[in-house]
Amino acid sequence: MIELEGLTKRFGSKVAVDQLTFQVRPGVVTGFLGPNGAGKSTTMRMMLDLDNPTSGTVRIDGKHYNELQEPLKYIGALLDAKSMHGGRSAYNNLLCLAQSNRIPRSRVDEVLNTVGLSAVAKKKSKGFSLGMGQRLGIASALLGDPEILMFDEPVNGLDPEGIHWIRNLMKALAAEGRTIFVSSHLMSEMALTADHLIVIGQGRLLADTSMADFIHENSRSYVRLRSPQQERLRDVLHQEGFTAVEAEGGVLEIDGATTEALGELAARHQVVLHELSAQRASLEEAFMQMTAGSVEYHAHSGPGGALPAPGAAAAGAAGAAGAGWGEGWNKPDSADPGSTTGTEGTTGSTNEGA
Ligand SMILES: Nc1ncnc2c1ncn2[C@@H]1O[C@H](COP(=O)(O)OP(=O)(O)OP(=O)(O)O)[C@@H](O)[C@H]1O
Question: Where is this region: Disordered (predicted)?
């Protein structure tokens, strides 16, 4: 278990982390979300005693990090995959860590095998691809067989097979009763991996809730209906007290109804349907809705053409909103309006609902 209480970090006048209080519990994968610059990495660094809090505390199984003897046996972390010594082999990088934490040499072979790097164990890590570097970083996190694991953007640079592998690894570790805390900008991936979410914006806690509740509370779910007898369908819906909103392509969107109820209604009135589909909101839409007010960097589509803020787009157009997380994010109050801030792009959501 990780417990934060009033955790705060200031860099000069910038409040990077602002009075964060939450717990990360064992047995589930907890996702850590927030827009760029929200304070996720700073929070994780303070959890590992790599940054000193301005105020507040972090407890790892009830203790401060520096009270842990051989901390790798309590908490393993992947923060920056490039932190390995490039001139050393994968094996020697892990061996050094193992020796300084009194971890048996045999464990190095085990974790190299777990992450699929046994064949390149003797190769210098500076020649590793981004994906191999991520795997080596994950191996170092697993080395002490810790009960708590933290991963900052673990799927960065991994190919689809690698992404699948890390997802299953995190789920399996959580199923063993371990505490898994993971940040990612890949919303579709997070939706498949995390059971619980901590969401922050501008350093402050915005949500501490289950994945299902987060999506339910921050986005819209509705049913799409399409019929060659649209006028008749409209009348029937109206008679039965449903409000239908017409969308592109003659589609009717109905909030607050189930596909079962609408399908039976259409059958009763002998209205032909060409489409009857539940549109579940995606994590990406819910996330953008929630964090709209705390996004620090806003995109511009090109000279003079600003895209709507993610939250505004989330209310109506998931596709456009997704596009807003690509390249070209600008800080709106930047002293240099021409400067762009490169960011991680999120992938599009798997759902089509808005
Ligand atoms: N060493 C530092 N000195 C000054 N400001 C910093 C420092 N580290 C972080 N910050 C600022 O603190 C804020 C939080 O940064 P942090 O890297 O923790 O955010 P993040 O949520 O991890 O962002 P991203 O998703 O882009 O990785 C940002 O405004 C950042 O510029």
Answer: 308-354
